[in-house]
Amino acid sequence: MAAKSVKKVVLAYSGGLDTSVILKWLQQTYGCEVVTFTADLGQGEELEPARRKAELAGVKQIFVDDLRETFVKDFVFPMFRANALYEGQYLLGTSIARPLIAQRQIEIAEEVGADAVAHGATGKGNDQVRFELAYYALKPDVTVIAPWREWDLTSRTRLIEFAEKNQIQVTKDKRGEAPFSVDANLLHSSSEGKILEDPAVEADEIVYQRTISPENAPDVATTITMDFHNGDAVAINGVALSPATLLTELNALGKANGIGRLDLVENRFVGMKSRGIYETPGGTILLAAHRGIESITLDREAAHLKDSLMPRYAELIYNGFWFSPERRMLQALIDTSQGSVTGRVTLKLYKGNVTVIGRESPNSLYSMKVVTFEDDQGAYNQVDAQGFIKLQALRLRLGAAAGRRGGTP
Amino acid sequence: MAAKSVKKVVLAYSGGLDTSVILKWLQQTYGCEVVTFTADLGQGEELEPARRKAELAGVKQIFVDDLRETFVKDFVFPMFRANALYEGQYLLGTSIARPLIAQRQIEIAEEVGADAVAHGATGKGNDQVRFELAYYALKPDVTVIAPWREWDLTSRTRLIEFAEKNQIQVTKDKRGEAPFSVDANLLHSSSEGKILEDPAVEADEIVYQRTISPENAPDVATTITMDFHNGDAVAINGVALSPATLLTELNALGKANGIGRLDLVENRFVGMKSRGIYETPGGTILLAAHRGIESITLDREAAHLKDSLMPRYAELIYNGFWFSPERRMLQALIDTSQGSVTGRVTLKLYKGNVTVIGRESPNSLYSMKVVTFEDDQGAYNQVDAQGFIKLQALRLRLGAAAGRRGGTP
Amino acid sequence: MAAKSVKKVVLAYSGGLDTSVILKWLQQTYGCEVVTFTADLGQGEELEPARRKAELAGVKQIFVDDLRETFVKDFVFPMFRANALYEGQYLLGTSIARPLIAQRQIEIAEEVGADAVAHGATGKGNDQVRFELAYYALKPDVTVIAPWREWDLTSRTRLIEFAEKNQIQVTKDKRGEAPFSVDANLLHSSSEGKILEDPAVEADEIVYQRTISPENAPDVATTITMDFHNGDAVAINGVALSPATLLTELNALGKANGIGRLDLVENRFVGMKSRGIYETPGGTILLAAHRGIESITLDREAAHLKDSLMPRYAELIYNGFWFSPERRMLQALIDTSQGSVTGRVTLKLYKGNVTVIGRESPNSLYSMKVVTFEDDQGAYNQVDAQGFIKLQALRLRLGAAAGRRGGTP
Amino acid sequence: MAAKSVKKVVLAYSGGLDTSVILKWLQQTYGCEVVTFTADLGQGEELEPARRKAELAGVKQIFVDDLRETFVKDFVFPMFRANALYEGQYLLGTSIARPLIAQRQIEIAEEVGADAVAHGATGKGNDQVRFELAYYALKPDVTVIAPWREWDLTSRTRLIEFAEKNQIQVTKDKRGEAPFSVDANLLHSSSEGKILEDPAVEADEIVYQRTISPENAPDVATTITMDFHNGDAVAINGVALSPATLLTELNALGKANGIGRLDLVENRFVGMKSRGIYETPGGTILLAAHRGIESITLDREAAHLKDSLMPRYAELIYNGFWFSPERRMLQALIDTSQGSVTGRVTLKLYKGNVTVIGRESPNSLYSMKVVTFEDDQGAYNQVDAQGFIKLQALRLRLGAAAGRRGGTP
């Protein structure tokens, strides 16, 4: 693959070994100016070292942004309005961060007049797709550089050789192979590869970084309340919090109670199965709480419609189509349902379990008067049920009369 | 509502106070012969007392059947192939039992020449619908009697008066109001009503009957294996078990480890919200295990297609449409996917948590050779990803070029 | 069914024999004041006779409204944005009119302080459901009176006896049985019942009232253009027209060219099949034109998402759930897609055929540069297709390698 | 792209100029033995010339197969059971033929011990995807050669130069550019490219090859009957016909009556929009007839479930996933519904119109007794409708009571 002609490239730069090598490699291979962009998405690493390393590498335009509030408010929360789970289980922690990074990269590219963007994702994973689909959707003529698909630094040894030859600092712990690969942000931490590659073998406890184990969690439950407004969480235990602060607090609660671990074999968009260990402590609580408040405030058919479209919505995000017409259409549908999703949920956190134990709302559709086993004073006329059933059954009876017993088609 | 003309009616008879009153009420109101049918679906009650009570009430044709194996094999297992959850959470324990009871009732009706069937479900709940849709689908000209919608015994006091006036034994504990209402079978136990009617108030520990609390479960995890063949569980810890025996064993494991409790506000088919406490110890393990074995044996699009239709399938069962063409069509789709769902899952059970920690299968689609972070020796060509992404992005780029940035529709 | 206690009822009143009988029957049976509401939805009948008849019947508050523009703008057009077809064929002409009538009835009820509403739909059809669901959604405590389900005027003879006894004018043509029943509005005319009840027998030409037959249409085609803005039709042959005027003009074009006839057996919400003859001349052209402009302005996945949800949306409208959360959610999704659906379509109308023969738009996503068979100057790199296909095929290849040839699940 | 190492390749060979060039190019470029495969799918061309040309080119193993019956029976008919339409309009005539050609190619490859297959589809279209996905699904280790993506014969001039240099006969009409490109088989003929590339310009009459224009069709209608058995057409006018013979006969009827033309802008799987002119005379009649017989024999929910999944099924076929688990799963669902789809439909064919004017079936679910406007003698109790509506409305009333008027979510 011949090197494309590029004048200026915005690199998603973490400051770690890999993207430091990429930085240098871009400068050498493309002979172009590199602009670095380092984002704080709550991954738990300091950003200033990245700035210094970029300076050392001769970068003139360095962007370091704290995007945590934007991340939670404009990406995580909209996604949780959908109760999104990929393949029934995965809370999409990595998937939902990529579009934001890409969006900011493209903004910077416009700002500094860059014609290219680059990322450090490999050619086997989903992240390359997520980054690049977002780039193209936001700037269709941008040149995308994906060094891992292009270069010949295909082994750890060659990567480190390149680093050393180019005065890139290789810390001791990076010299050997990491036993697995990690991605982290405010929503979750994911681990995969290497020692995790055999799906028949249990993941070692050392893999888990964001949660203590259920076994080590306290022997007494923690009870909290969460308040929602129009589908988004706004307070914990009655204390109003900003989106990122709230998620940070939920993470602490989840971590302490061993909540949010997931050991999953999933299907990647590029066609293979992979195994990941996910830790989503706060998100796991948030999902349970959101379902809890929806259970009394959402109309049945609104809820079922959302549920029926959720897998598709989750798949879109997993596959990297955040910036697509179809995601926006589904989001409009979902958001339209959330105007009444306001109220308080009480949850019990205990050794890996999140249990909704109470819900209340000014918009509640739950009617004790109607549902009661006691005398309902005419709120519901039981005789109506007969007509309801008779007409529901009519087509089945006509079918049975035509010889199709028991719904044989 | 005028009493319909009925000659012989088959009553779903538990032997409890309510259906004993119904038995007598049917004899008096319809002046017809009553045939009783009592089924063992694993509810954990002896059936012989029901037979004796029926004899005392003058019933001549009494049917008492152990349907546990049929229940699990032909109803529970097919449903679990779909990973069915109603409203994202409910394992449909009550819903799936009703069609079997109704089916057997109709078989008996044909056998004894009855022209009517009767059940003890109230006019507010889902069960009346489930019973009656099944009746009509299997015998379209049957007369259905639902005493709770017809009679005037609308208070506990009047019911007990009727019982006493008619020599029906009222045990001491039935004399007062039960604090909540219970339905149970081999798959689950559900509790609702009375003290559970306020969804803001936590359910009391006394409500739980099938599981010990996570707090009281052992401090060490239990690890088990489950074997699947064509989508159905066939063995625990390597020991082959019949369907009902296997579910019984899973229930014991779940109960001991505090697994399978659910406190839910759900939407009934008849249009109201209700709150239920469900305990599905074995089913909760079974679902996790089935998802685990599917994760390595199901093709991605097969899995996603199933996931996208699951809410509809679950809704059908919840609403009582087991015997319908649409349920059979969806079942055909689901079953077609299960031919390769064979293999072994390892699970950890610990204080309410069920965690899949390993999966293996002769049919595994997981390819370590393809997914590896190490050199894959050409199993996957990373350069292919570029073309893949470029064509996935083409429509987004054309859209952006036409002025729709970021997928604005 | 005992007469409910009612003080004042708003009746949907056409001025015809049936609703005139209902008017009188309501006055007699409920001893209440009746307010009449007569709407012009483009059914092609004069409204002033209805006013006079209501006056003669002693009605004090008489409402006669021309709702044609509202009908097309707020009901027909939103529905056409979805390309809605019930059961693949029916353009929902009756279904879409009912919610508007009901909405206005409830507004009037609020205005005049009525506690009840009444309609003239029978107990077998869909219209009773559509009226009443709308009533309840807009005024949950309203009392609904459906005379056809309540009274004993169940034969034509008794109806006419009642009319004569009560000085209601029975025109000669109403004295005998009408050979079929008709509903009409600006969107369509439907005919059903009586001579149309046998679905094996062709409908007689006399049934058709809104269209000439294709055989009698001109021997030369009519070519027109239609302009769309944000998904709605705004002009014919370059002349801007209001919604109702535009549909009126399309009806004339369709009628003259024998367009829009449909002979259909459909499934009613109440559980039976029925046979209807529909004539939707303008709507048939509108649907073709809308699909035409969407074909160049809608993104592929936006279009496919709409298509996949269309049957559900159409079913909702058919079943009477216009005023429901789920319809509004779907509408939000659909409307979100229409912002770019602007441009011009050229259509040929000829003896029953509507053919899109040209489309153009400032927002077109069709790129001659990309699609051309000629040299595209790098707009599309054919080599990308290889990677695209390789990754699309990966899961199939892994499946085949695991022994599942040809996608055997 | 370096030439892969190939020993023997099976080429899908039409005998035309393009595939003749490919044949020679494969021999030269890959230095491998080429096996040709020419199929009769009803495209209306003689096959023997292809055999002779292959012999002249030195091919030793030549396969010429008449696949018409297989094509209709195992591909076209299963697809029509679904009423499949891509993007609401396209009958998938090209899409459905590709998997059969690919399947036979792979069978031949296995038979002759070939390690590669080749096709003549370009790198911009859908057909390359359809061929190759089928190849990979059936023989995962096969080498695929797509000359159009590989070679440098990218202009007509160079192609003809290559032909002349290699003694490939170039007929006079092939020397100039064809004004558009055609694909044909027993189901349809499609035309695209060149003079058709501007979607604003009407297609010229010369494009149409399979149908006369509605204008030129007879002035009197043709009435036919079609018989179906288990969802498949089996007879025309009472005469039993084999699948291919039946479709041939329908094509003649459609052609003569100007039926089945479509001018469409569609979305390709590879990401671009394209414009095609399709002629599907017999298929258009078949679809109308199949919908007609389903209208009286399919249960409502069975029909709606099919309709809701149809767009997905059609998309799968369009995209080339015939041999995939998800297509087989959907097929199982569809086929399960067709057991009762048996009976006779009467159709009127007139100048482009296909109208179902009658349907009858021994399995009919249409009940004149229930639907009648006359006295139904108790077949349907109109009072049941009240309870039906009341319970359907309950959630809407609870919503309205909670302040959400008119279904505001």
From TrEMBL, chains A, B, C, D:
Listed transmembrane segments:
none
Question: What InterPro entries has UniProt attached to this entry?
Answer: Arginosuc_syn_C, Arginosuc_syn_N, Arginosuc_synth, Arginosuc_synth_CS, Arginosuc_synth_type_1_subfam, AS_cat/multimer_dom_body, Rossmann-like_a/b/a_fold
Keyword ATP-binding (UniProt):
yes
Instruction: Recall the GO molecular function terms of this protein's record.
Output: argininosuccinate synthase activity; ATP binding
Cite the binding residues for L-aspartate. Answer: 122, 126-127
Assigned protein family: Belongs to the argininosuccinate synthase family. Type 1 subfamily.
Can you say what this protein is called? Answer: Argininosuccinate synthase
